[in-house]
Design a protein that fits this description.
Layout: H1 10-18, H2 23-35, H3 37-53, H4 65-85, H5 92-121, E1 124-128, E2 134-137, E3 143-146, E4 151-155, E5 163-174, E6 183-186, E7 191-194, E8 198-203, E9 209-215, E10 217-224, E11 229-236, E12 240-244, E13 247-251, E14 267-274, H6 275-285, E15 289-292, E16 301-307, H7 311-322, E17 325-329, E18 332-336
Parallel strand pairs: 5-6, 15-18
Antiparallel strand pairs: 1-4, 2-3, 3-5, 4-5, 5-8, 6-7, 7-10, 8-9, 9-12, 10-11, 12-13, 14-16, 17-18
């Protein structure tokens, strides 16, 4: 042994087994072990004694997960190498013990990963809507509007790779854009991944997962246990999708009522909607009375989307769409104009 090298004693061997040695010392110990089969046998005996005496316990798991994994991987490779080179007389239980230590190290690392996630993201937070919808802002600035009797659960702080929330019920999301950390809504039936968009997710237990995209683009996906693969479909602005019997797929616009998600931020989505239905919906959600003065107005159909707009703005858009004028007297709006000859949405 070189004079500069440290004598290999029990203290250094204990450090080696606990994984506390530096790279130079580790190289010296490996050279010492390879030099004589008796040295390996000595290490095995000491290892057995220290385990039984409780002196040898798993080393603290490093916070640097990548470094910890590399160390464990090298230790596994080393264990395999030692087993191949071990003398014939080496007892079977010692070889098994080395494999057990490698497996135990992996389990410890897995626990450390879970602990690290808890330490970096904090305890889970749950928001629940009661008998009225509620709006909240998440840690990343994303907005969520929960429908009645719906809830989401998410960490106090999102991790660096994904911003995950778990949804039970119905919610409308305005996800802030962060390409490095996609926003993911997880449900029992499947998941929705986005980079930044506005979308509706309906995930009621026992029903198909439904997604409607208002802005941007999302990926609706599930993990198929049969195919052992991820099944997904891309949904863009104005498209809808469902997970039906475990398979995500696009679906045509369902023709839901224009105020189906009015709860999600006063959103009204009129698509070729007859004016009588438009008036009925507006009077349902706003304290107003709307009176068309010409019966032909009822032939008109409206295509327009409103989100959080005051009623005056909505009435202005309706009037300009069909060449009407309106007067306001308190909460009563009177529409004047010639209306539409047929059920059309004229381009005026």
């Amino acid at each position: 042994m070189d004079q500069k090298e440290q004598p290999i004693g029990e203290h250094l061997l204990l450090q080696y087994l606990q994984g506390n040695e530096d790279q130079i010392l580790s190289t010296e110990i490996e050279r010492w072990l390879d030099a004589d089969a008796g040295n390996r046998a000595m290490l095995d005996r000491l290892e057995s004694l220290w385990v039984e005496a409780g002196k040898l316990s798993p080393a603290p798991v490093a916070v640097d997960v990548d470094a910890a994994w590399k160390k464990i991987s090298s230790r596994i490779d080393l264990s395999v190498s030692r087993n191949r080179e071990a003398p014939v007389g080496l007892s079977r239980h010692i070889r098994i013990r080395r494999i057990w230590y490698a497996a135990a190290s992996i389990l410890v690392l897995a626990g450390a990963l879970a602990l690290l996630r808890i330490l970096t993201t904090g305890h889970p937070v749950t928001i629940t809507a009661g008998t009225t919808p509620i709006t909240d802002t998440l840690a990343d600035g994303s907005l969520v509007r929960l429908n009645v009797h719906s809830s989401i659960t998410f960490p106090e702080k999102f991790d660096q790779d994904f911003r995950r929330v778990n949804l039970n019920g119905e919610a409308f999301f305005h996800a802030s854009r962060n390409q490095a950390a996609p926003f993911v809504v997880e449900t029992e039936e499947g998941s929705v991944m986005v980079l930044g968009t506005a979308f509706l997710v309906t995930a009621n237990p026992g029903n198909d997962l439904h997604v409607a995209v208002r802005e941007g683009k999302v990926r609706l996906f599930t993990v198929s246990p049969d195919a052992r693969d991820t099944l997904s479909v891309i949904l863009e602005q104005g498209e809808q999708g469902k997970v039906i019997r475990g398979v995500p797929q696009k679906i045509p616009w369902s023709g839901d009522t224009p105020d189906a998600i009015f709860w999600a931020g006063e959103l009204l989505d009129f698509r070729n909607t007859p004016l009588p239905a438009v008036i009925e919906i507006l009077e349902r959600h706003y304290p107003v009375k709307i009176i068309p003065l010409d019966p032909r107005m009822l032939n008109c159909r409206l295509t327009a989307t409103f989100e959080g707009e005051p009623i005056d703005n909505i009435m202005t858009v309706i009037a300009e769409s069909f060449g009407f004028k309106f007067t306001k007297n308190g909460n009563i709006y009177s529409l004047e104009g010639v209306g539409c000859q047929t059920y059309e949405n004229p381009d005026r």
